[in-house]
Amino acid sequence: MPQYANVSSVPLSLAVFLASDSYDHNDDPNTLSATALIKPLRQIVLSSRVTNEASPVDLVQMVPSRLGTAIHDGIERAWKSNYKVAMKAMGYPEKVIERVQINPDPDTLKDGDIPIYMEQRIHKKVGKYTISGKYDFIGDGRVEDFKSTSTFTAMNNTNDSKYILQGSIYRWLNPKIITRNEMAIQFIFTDWSAARARAEDNYPKQRIQQRILPLLSLQETNAFVTRKLSDIEKYWDAPEEDIPLCSDEDLWRSAPVFKYYKNPQKTARSTKNFDNRQVKSLHVSTVQRLRSVARKTS
Fold first, then answer.
1. What is the mean pLDDT of each run of 10 residues along the chain (298 residues)?
2. What is the 3-state secondary structure (H, E, C) of the chain?
3. pLDDT value for 58
4. How many other CB atoms sit within 10 Å of the CB of residue 3?
5. How many CB atoms neighbour CB 196 within 10 A?
6. What is the CATH code for 28-51+63-242?
């Protein structure tokens, strides 16, 4: 069965691009990437039981993934093939440019060198499992991740915990070259609006935004990896009903909000928000009583 279906009638000129997958997949069930390891336990276990007879994916659904890959590939090519010209165009002095070393052997670095590491996959054995990670960028000992995503992700911090885990696993895999206790997320917004940036206080002011996040310690990261692998081993052959359900965080589900509208005809913005239905009901009852008293005394 084909892997992709052109249900949306994408022209062949773009269809080939969307059907091209350059990711270095590994089908060994005992090899887990950092990205895979931070997925919910239930998703990891049950995805291994899915047959290859799944329906083909509509090509148009691959647009976000392929655009993200294209951005990563473009950044890598720019650094590997054109960084000297680009840095000179930005006004960096020649003596600084000459110190830049791309993917060097860390044991050969000299004082004053500026090492830049990109897109290298590292592996580490833990019992019968192999954990792998392919970071985007490391500069000055800090790992960076490039994220082409919606502004919603950055405004609501929806993935910060996942970013921290992923970056921490990268450092756990590469402590010799990732030496700093923080990581940087470089957001490239796919839906950024200059008008919203001017009008909304919490909206990203630039199309590219950097966010600095703290990393877990090496000990904390090792404990997470060990515990996750133990859980995978425990539930690998367990009945589906025995596998722990995904948490609200796993499902990107925020806590419920109960909104009160002073005027039910105007719902663009709530008058007051509550974190549980009982408190909201109490507030509504109080407001109604006060209004009743006000009418009687007027």
1. 90 95 80 92 86 80 93 95 96 96 93 94 94 94 95 88 95 95 96 94 94 96 95 91 75 56 63 62 63 63
2. CCCEECCCCCCHHHHHHHCCCCCCCCCCCCEEEHHHHCCCHHHHHHHCCCCCCCCCEEHHHHHHHHHHHHHHHHHHHHHHHHHHHHHHHCCCCHHHHCCEEECCCHHHCCCCCEEEEECCEEEEEECCEEEEEECCEEECCEEEEEEEECHHHHHCCCCHHHHHHHHHHHHHHCCCCCCCCEEEEEEEECCCCHHHHHHCCCCCCCCEEEEEEECCCHHHHHHHHHHHHHHHHHHCCCCHHHCCCCCCCCCCCCCCCEEECCCCCCCCCCCEEECCHHHHHHHHHHHHHHHHHHHHHC
3. 93
4. 10
5. 12
6. 3.90.320
Q: Taking the C-alpha atoms of 221, 224, 230 and 234 in order, what is their torsion angle to the nearest 10 degrees?
A: -160
Cα 165 to Cα 179: distance, rounded to the nearest angstrom: 16
Cα(205)–Cα(195) distance, integer angstroms: 10
Whether the Cβ atoms of residue 144 and residue 184 lie closer than 8 Å to each other: yes
What is the structure's pLDDT at 207? 96
Across-strand partners of 131?
32, 124
| CA 236, 240, 244, 247 torsion-angle sign | positive
Q: In the chain, which residues fall in CATH 3.90.320?
A: 28-51+63-242
- Alpha-carbon distance of 115 to 113, in angstroms, equals 6
Q: What is the dihedral of CA 19, 22, 27, 29, to 10 degrees?
A: -110
Distant-in-sequence, close-in-space partners of 291: CB < 8 Å, separation ≥ 6: none
Q: pTM of the full predicted structure?
A: 0.80
Q: Read off the amino acid at residue 59.
A: L
